[in-house]
Amino acid sequence: MNRYKSKAWQECFLPRLSKKEIAELDKEKGVLVLPVGAVEQHGPHLPVYTDTLIAEGLLSAAFQLLSQEYQVWMLPPLSYGKSTEHLGHPGTMTLSATTLQQVILDIGKSAKASGFRRIVLFNTHGGNIDLLNMVARELRIETGLMVFRMNAMDFRSELTSMFSEKELTYGIHGGDVETSLVLAIEEGWVDMELAPTEFYHQELLDIKGGPFAAWVIDDLSESGISGNAKAATKEKGEEVISRLSKKIAETLAAMSEFEMESFQQKPTVKST
User: Total structural domains in the chain?
Assistant: First the structure.
């Protein structure tokens, strides 16, 4: 995948435009997409740029599917996320929660000052999720922008026929899904000879939802991953991109049409 030659980067990358061109954009339905990833360890076989790379690859594919009627523009990826749970592993570069929150708020305020009404926080790092949920609401309150948060794995149900329930539940970091995706996007960045298999397991105290135990990666894993990276293939990654990009494109299109007032619209009652 040559993502930097795609529509997302060649036609819909906002910074390639001049201030005159940006001023002339239709901002009534326009949507800015801010990819938020991470630079952090993903085991011995994957690059530390994995999460941001996946964001770039998925959005590149999704933008190919959007028709010209949708004014959706991509901002430069915010590569650094909140990765404190991976500190101590070589290559992990993290922002504090406070810093990341302020950076996103400042970007949102700048979008507002440029006349935009909608911004999407497109996230591909699990460690960012809780923070982005909070920041999205704060940004809405402080600016009046319509703020959306989308995680790539919000659409994991699209992958149930491809991966085991165990992988989709416990393969949360550097496993089959992420390794397959990186193989599809930048195959040369993966060393499959070093790909491990390791799963955390705990039925009652989860690490994502429900009753919760706070954790860092060393609590879960010796290798720095959770999942079956050995099972990954480029072909699976290409299929994951195909399935997820369709849902991402559909969701971005819906966001461009969305108005906050629709939350209060009463259902239409048909007369008999």
Answer: 1
